[in-house]
Specification:
about 0% strand, mainly alpha, Globin-like, 8 helices, globular
Length: about 140
């Protein structure tokens, strides 16, 4: 039986997703998994929609299966990359989707998710993501 035919791949993905959410909760200073999920989803969507399609897909390939599903949820690749070139617009997008109080909370959320990505995604892929972002947004992901 190959890994693809083995339904335990789903369980492993759930376990990895719980690890990501726990680590993100720790980064955010709490243990609220629902909040951590909202933060992860909002930041991944804002990042995904700012990336060229090929870079977005390469990043997705390194995410746990369940997180990959969250990442791709509601994606319309024909509309990407969105023309978000400044930090304020990016943070407004994160704050809106994540139902956050404003840019400060969104900034902390982006930095926390960036640290999770740096922990779990290859340095080469993180480098590719950073390379295609406008200079103003690079500082958020390099946190």
């Amino acid at each position: 039986m190959s890994e693809i035919d083995d339904p335990s791949i789903i369980q492993r993905s759930v376990e990895k997703t719980h690890i990501w959410l726990k680590e993100l909760g720790d980064e955010l200073g709490g243990s609220d998994r629902l909040y951590a999920y909202r933060v992860l989803r909002a930041v991944l969507h804002a990042l995904r929609d700012r990336l060229p399609v090929d870079t977005a897909a390469k990043l997705a390939a390194q995410l746990p299966t369940l997180v990959r599903g969250i990442y791709y949820e509601d994606w319309d690749p024909s509309r990407t990359p969105l023309p978000i070139h400044d930090v304020d617009a990016f943070l407004d997008r994160v704050a809106s989707e994540g139902r956050m109080a404003g840019e400060t909370e969104a900034s902390l959320a982006v930095e926390a998710v960036a640290r999770i990505l740096q922990r779990h995604v290859s340095a080469g892929e993180i480098g590719e993501v950073i390379a295609v972002l406008p200079d103003a947004l690079k500082t958020l992901i390099e946190a």
